[in-house]
Amino acid sequence: MTEPVLVLLSGVAAGVLNSVGGGGTFVALPALVAVGLPPVTANAVARIALVPGAVAGAWVYRRELAPVGDASTIALAAASTVGSGVGACLLLALPASAFESVSPWLLAFATVVLALGDRLSRLLGRLLDRSAGMSTRAVLIGQFLIAVYGGYFGGAVGILMVALWSIGLGLDAAVGNPMRIAQLAAVFLTSGVVFLFTSDALCAPLLLVALLVGATVGGFAGARLARRLPARWLRGVLLATATVTTVLYFLNA
Length: 253
Prior knowledge:
This protein is mainly α and 253 residues long. The chain is built from 10 helices and no strands.
């Protein structure tokens, strides 16, 4: 029972992180690989299991959604849904060796975004003219591309969303957090449904249930904790987790 307990605890941590600032994949994916699942299967299991937690977090924030420029919530959700579906299909269509080879680099990319996202956003915001802001079409195209990445891998996808909105529209990260959680739910729900019916995620039902229960509890609790705990503390823990995970993946590659 050691493995299900480990996966359960990692699910709680992943759910909390996704609700607070993103990065639950940094915890869930390595935990599943550590207990013996192949990387592609682990990615599919993690995506399915993180759906309820993401939806729970979105439900908590449902009355606090703020517009992203002129793009409506429905339009953003449509871009997230289609993009995530494309990314999930790419994961299943490409050879498993392709994901195993690229996953350390994806983790490294997500870690850099996590570490430098705010600074890059401020720097680009000063360099770019925000007087007009991104057009609605540009916002939706950017959201679609981020969702493709989210459907394929998912690490720090919520952080990429906030960075796009901040750079292109000057949207404050705290104001955009409820919308980030809502779009994260759309990305995870879409790819999770695809993986549920087309991948071998159900080959490890006990691990799937353990991660699902943990992520649901963590997602609901994390959305409430986000209003109380300093974001700097949580970001520090997440960055440390991401860095260690990335290093371990490169050592084992």
